[in-house]
Amino acid sequence: MSDISRAEVCVAACAEIYRDNGEILASAFGTIPAIGVRLARHTFSPDLLLTDGESHLVQGTWAVGGPAEGVVEGWSPFRGIFDLNWTGKRHIVMVPVQIDRFGNVNISAIGDHAKPSVQLVGVRGAPGNTVYHATSYWIAKHSTRTFVPAVDMVSGAGNDRAAAAGTGASRYHDLRKVVTDLAVLDYAPASGAMRLVSVHPGVTVDEVHAATGFDLVVDGEVPVTRLPTDDELALIRDVIDPRNLRDKEVPA
To answer: For the purposes of burial, counting CB atoms within 10 Å of the CB of 61, is it exposed (0-12), middle (13-18) or buried (19 or more)?
Structure first.
């Protein structure tokens, strides 16, 4: 297939977050991550567990924004979600408002904590997510407003703060990937600082640097993010996102 959109490249990149994850609960927030996790389970990560958005674990592949019509294979009520999280058998994709070079994120407030200029959703589950199980991030607009030298409030722990807090925070701390509309990033093992993994087709390394408010680690030549295959495109366009909601999150 031709005319692959930037949104579809991002979907494939979000699917790759879940490659080889095994039998874990996959929680993907944001439209494109929700498409990506369905794509991953339908293709190369069939053991992933997905919920209907409430309390059932459901088989099959269903469209984003629609009902989960597959066979119910398990039950995960709200009162049990924390026990599941604490076992580490979950990989979440969250959507931060701010993120720094070590992966500290803010979803709570912008400005002085005592008198913020913008009140957001609060820390919610971010502290527990970042110290108990695998955590990745999706950012639909890669810019210096989001990629900042220091977040205004730490809602989710980055590599530096988890290490400084001791084994209680660092033992199961596991930041994986950051996918944006420009690139894929992870963290350099030695320093824990954010590293540029690939740039999406048509994007240059300089453009990513210019849209980032701190220095990124770059190891050699940066490859281009892989394109979705023809079979993956058919799944994205005809089965998982027939209403083309992906282009509303990352416009063509």
So the answer is: middle
